[in-house]
C-alpha cells in the first residue's frame, strides 16, 4: 500500500520508500562487512520490525540466522505503558552468539534497553542495534545504536511495519496520519 492509496488518511510523509531503501542498502553493506566470517543472529521485535527485518536480511551479502521475539509496551493508543511484556520468546539460546537487534523505531528507548540487557544477561557474545527510526527527543533511557536510522520528530508515525491500533503496517513508507485518524480507532473508511 502506498501513500496515494490512502491519501485522505495522511497528514504528511516523513520518510519515503526510496529513503528507506537507501538506508537499508547502506546499513546492510556495513553489517555484511562488519560480520563477515562471523555467525550472526538477527533478532527482530514483532510485529513492527518485520518489514525492516525482511528488507535488511535480504540486502545482506552474508548468511545469517533470523529469530523473532514479541515484546509489547504499547496498547491500542499512542502512549507507551512503560512496562515490557514478553508475548513470545526466542526459539534458541543466544549464549556465545553475536546478535544484531533489528528494530523499527526507538521512542522512549525502554523496549531496546530491556532487550539489550536481557540478551547480554543470557550470555550473548555481543549485542548491537539497528533501528530504522529514532525519536531522539523522546528517549527516557540511554541506548547505544551501532547502526542508526532516520532521526524523526516527536510525532506518532505509521507504515513499514509500524501501526496505529494494528492498522497501516502495510504502508510502504513512513507517515503521520491526520489527527482525526488517531481518534477514530478501528473505524474503516
Ligand atoms: O522505545 P519504545 O518506547 O520502547 O518504543 C518502541 C517499541 O514500540 C513499538 O512496539 P509495540 O509495543 O507498539 O508493538 P508492535 O511492534 O507489535 O506494534 C515498536 O515496534 C518498538 O518495539
Ligand atoms: O510513532 C510510533 N508509531 C507506531 N508505533 C510506535 N511505537 C513507538 N512509537 C511509535
TrEMBL record:
Cofactor: Mg(2+)
UniProt source species: Bombiscardovia nodaiensis
EC number(s) given by UniProt: 2.4.2.8
Protein name (database record): Hypoxanthine phosphoribosyltransferase
Superkingdom, natural source: Bacteria
Keywords noted in UniProt: Cytoplasm, Glycosyltransferase, Magnesium, Metal-binding, Nucleotide-binding, Purine salvage, Transferase
Chain ranges of the Phosphoribosyltransferase domain: 13-164
Listed CDD domains: PRTases_typeI (cd06223)
Protein family (similarity comment): Belongs to the purine/pyrimidine phosphoribosyltransferase family.
Amino acid at each position: 500500500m502506498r501513500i496515494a492509496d490512502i491519501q485522505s488518511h495522511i497528514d504528511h510523509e516523513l520518510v519515503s520508500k526510496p529513503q528507506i531503501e537507501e538506508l537499508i542498502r547502506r546499513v546492510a553493506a556495513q553489517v555484511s562487512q562488519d560480520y563477515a566470517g562471523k555467525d550472526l543472529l538477527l533478532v527482530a521485535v514483532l510485529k513492527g520490525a518485520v518489514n525492516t527485518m525482511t528488507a535488511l536480511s535480504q540486502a545482506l551479502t552474508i548468511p545469517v540466522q533470523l529469530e523473532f521475539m514479541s515484546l509489547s509496551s504499547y496498547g491500542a493508543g499512542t502512549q507507551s505503558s512503560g512496562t515490557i511484556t514478553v508475548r513470545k520468546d526466542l526459539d534458541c539460546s543466544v549464549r556465545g552468539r553475536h546478535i544484531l537487534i533489528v528494530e523499527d523505531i526507538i521512542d522512549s528507548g525502554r523496549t531496546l534497553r530491556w532487550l539489550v540487557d536481557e540478551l547480554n544477561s543470557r550470555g550473548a557474545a555481543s549485542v548491537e542495534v539497528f533501528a530504522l527510526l529514532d525519536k531522539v527527543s523522546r528517549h527516557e533511557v540511554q541506548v547505544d545504536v551501532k547502526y542508526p536510522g532516520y532521526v524523526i520528530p516527536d510525532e506518532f508515525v505509521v507504515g513499514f511495519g509500524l501501526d496505529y491500533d494494528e492498522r497501516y503496517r502495510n504502508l510502504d513508507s513512513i507517515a503521520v496520519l491526520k489527527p482525526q485518524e488517531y481518534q477514530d480507532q478501528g473505524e474503516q473508511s
